Amino acid sequence: MKRLLPVWFGAYRREWLAGDLSAGLIAAVMLVPQSLGYAMLAGLPPEVGLYASILPVIAYAWLGSSMTLAVGPVAVASLMTASALHPLAVAGSAHYVMLAGQLALLSGLMLLAFGVLRLGFLAHFLSHPVVSGFLSGSSLLIAVGQFKHVLGVKVEGHGMLETTLGLVRALPDTNRTTLLVGGSTLAFLWVARRWFPGWFRRAGLSPDRADLAARFAPMLAVIVWTSLTALLELDRTSGLAVVGQFPSGLPTFPGWDALLPSRSVLADLALPALLLALVGFVESVSMAQSLAQRRQQRILPDRELLGLGAANLASAVSGSYPIIGGLSRSVINYAAGAQSPLASVVSALLMVLILLFFSSLFHPLPHAVLAAAIIVAVSSLIDVQAFRRAWAYDRADGMSLIASFVGVLVFGVEAGIVIGVSLSLAVIVWRSSHPHIAVVGRVLGTEHFRNINRYRVDTLPGVLAIRVDESLFFANAMEVESRIEALLAADDSVKRVVISCAGVNQVDTTALHMLTTLETDLARRGIRLDLAEVKGPVMDRLRDTEFGIRVADRVYLSLHDAMAADFKPPVR
Asked: Quick one: how far is CA 217 from the chain centroid?
């Protein structure tokens, strides 16, 4: 029986209950409009967003390791879903909904497989600059795409350029009522985000409670404009677009025929599912770790993979679409006093009640209000400072961020992140193939050796001591050999070369061949090759090779020992 219960259940404390119940209630009420809006952003019927806030939430609560992370529909996952499915089906159609469930299924299976195989390291291929550029580009794309709902116009086209041009052409057709509703909501939410927390703090609320109170602003806007729309019948008299009727009741299992993709669909959805899995994992774990650190808790990455995988499988079987850990959801959950995943379970159960008995309250909800809330929500993810920091610290990281950002805007979300990752990997290969090689000498009065261009050091006549700050492998072996030969050509008095291997963690077959050839060639020229500070695992592999045998008595524990050793010219 214990195996069927979540890990956190056994350590649950009675004093946590009040916080979990209140957090679950607040989250359920505040996240209903967000769930509706993100489902529509994904091109799905609005009720699908509510479905994604029930079974997936419970599944993650059972298997995830975070005590406060809240999963569900989020902006980036919605955009990635829309980007993957728009070429395959008409948005909102039954076929489109079926494909969304299949995308969630594939993403969930991949996450589960990564968790079982402990492959969480795969997400490390998404560097922080790439993720930051991807999120900023996606957020800008989402924000621009939502302005058609604020203006009340129809805009066709995908991508930043087509959408922007479409908005400009459609400006004369702007619906004034829609613009009033959307524009006033945008202004109100911007003021609320910028000024409300400070006002509430000055009123005596703690910082956490002030931030939570300010986050009720979108819900207040929803209540006001939904009520006015229903009372004044703005949808009928002014053409204001509203959510409209959607089915009440619980989600139903779509059936195996609708859930299992065909081979052709599998080929179309495999890459988007993989990218959703990786991006979802990185974003969810980052948020979970940030929240856990505030309470000195631990996050288990492999458990997070299992929890997110199970959540996406639950989303698929409930007719929904891919979900990940949400920034706003998690912050609301944490600030509302959540102490354990029970808060998310309470939120999911309340969402059931809303679907069963109160869904009609949201029928007059204007699209313009949801669009304004989404624009303000995603604007916080556009991180200009991240670019400035990356560019100032490392131009290569800055270029990766720009490539990911521009790639999303120009070529789409999948292409953007692939471009960013590809450039990051290319930078790694380039750096590894051009290792830093320093000529070193002894720091005056010490046994330490440092770069001769950075410190005042002593060097020994006829001795070239260098430090290679990279593992030796096929991509850089010839570069290392060329650098040594260039240094020898510049000083024909050198009779001894000492290589410090403190930064060498591996020597592959190509590098071993290079060292063997180099040592033999130097010996013919009357120059001895010595090694120092070779790591144990590296020496274990070199010991029984031709090179290892030849230099066995010339491998020193430290550069100090190597320099202090008696010099004997090599045997010709």
From this structure: 28
User: Hey, what are 485's tokens?
Assistant: 């030969």
What are the tokens at 419?
A: 């471009």
DSSP label of 242: B
Residue 319 CA to residue 3 CA, distance in Å, equals 28
pLDDT in tens, 38-58: 999 999 999 999 999 999 999
Instruction: Using the predicted structure, report yes or no on whether residue 572 has a pLDDT greater than 50.
Output: no
Give the end-to-end CA distance of the chain in Å, rounded to a whole number: 76
Q: What is the dihedral of CA 551, 552, 556, 557, to 10 degrees?
A: 140
Q: In this predicted structure, what is the pLDDT of residue 1?
A: 44
Residue-wise pLDDT for 57-78, tens only, equals 999 999 988 888 889 999 889 9
- Beta strand 528-532 with 463-468 is unpaired
Dihedral-angle region of residue 300 (phi above 0 means left; psi in -120 to 50 means alpha; beta otherwise)? beta
Alpha-carbon gap, residue 20 to 159, rounded angstroms: 41
d(CA 170, CA 161): 14
For 507, phi then psi, to 5°, come to: -130, 115
pLDDT reading at 570 higher than 70? no
The CATH number of the domain covering residues in 437-564:
3.30.750.24
Place of tokens 């070429």: 87
- Can you give the pTM of this predicted structure? 0.80
CA-to-CA dists, residue 231 to 86, 372, 417, 457, angstroms: 36, 21, 46, 84
* Unique residue bearing structure tokens 């260039």: 486
Please state whether beta strands 496-500 and 449-451 pair in parallel, antiparallel, or not at all (unpaired). Answer: unpaired
Q: What is the DSSP string of 438-453?
A: EEEEEETTSS-EEETT
CA gap 332, 464 in Å, rounded: 61
C-alpha 464/C-alpha 440 separation (Å) is 8
- Quickly state the pLDDT bin for 487 (edges 50, 70, 90): very high
Q: Region of 75 please: left (phi>0), alpha (psi -120 to 50) or beta.
A: alpha
> In the chain, which residues fall in CATH 3.30.750.24?
437-564
Q: Are strands 555-556 and 528-532 parallel, antiparallel or unpaired?
A: parallel
Q: How far is CA 546 from CA 154, 237, 543, 549, 550, in A?
A: 73, 89, 8, 5, 6
Nearest to 346 by CA among 75, 12, 8, 27: 27
Apex 48 CA angle, 94 and 41, nearest 5: 90
Q: Tell me what the pLDDT averaged over the chain comes to.
A: 88
Residues 478-485, mean pLDDT to the nearest whole number: 94
Tokens 């890990």 belong to 7
Question: Which structure tokens are listed for 57?
Answer: 């939430």
C-alpha radius of gyration, the chain, whole number: 30
